[in-house]
Amino acid sequence: MNDLIGELERFQPWNEQEERDRLLLLRLLRTDETVFSRENDAYHMTASAWVVSPDRTQVLMAYHNIYRSWSWLGGHADGERDLLAVAVREVREESGVRTVRPVSKEPFSLESLTVDGHEKRGRYVSSHLHLNVTYLLEADPEEQVVSKIDENSAVSWFPLQKAVEMSSEPWFRERIYQKLNAKLLAR
Hints:
The chain is of the alpha+beta class. Helix content is 33%, strand content 32%. The protein is built from 5 helices and 10 strands. Helix 4 (160-166) packs antiparallel against helix 5 (170-186).
């Protein structure tokens, strides 16, 4: 956990949202040992990936079954404290892409994400927060993609702006995906 705290202390926020969420993540990481487990039903750590093509013109997205929206890839830490490893694992599981590599080992973005109550595998999950660390990853758009049927119904590459437009979640489009593209283009 100390490695992640150090990474978040060094993280340079892009905007006020990232700074406020960085402070929240640091506070909870320092005070709650259950933060890496879904057993904490109020909030827990997750890792997401903004997966881009080597030429930085495309983004890999999945059509998420619960949210009924195109979205980034990622998932729960489930006890794992290496969130970069979680992001890479989730990309492989959710897209079938085998060759994926970090553009950087440092976090690319930070978010505190609200999750509405929903059914998952026949069981109700209460509304909660995902304390999310996003990593910038790279993969080859020519590699075959495969849906993970219990989580998504499609996986596809989109041009940067089209990836934003494909999301049916306004807050993600305007506050997260636009930001990720802006940060990518500023690199």
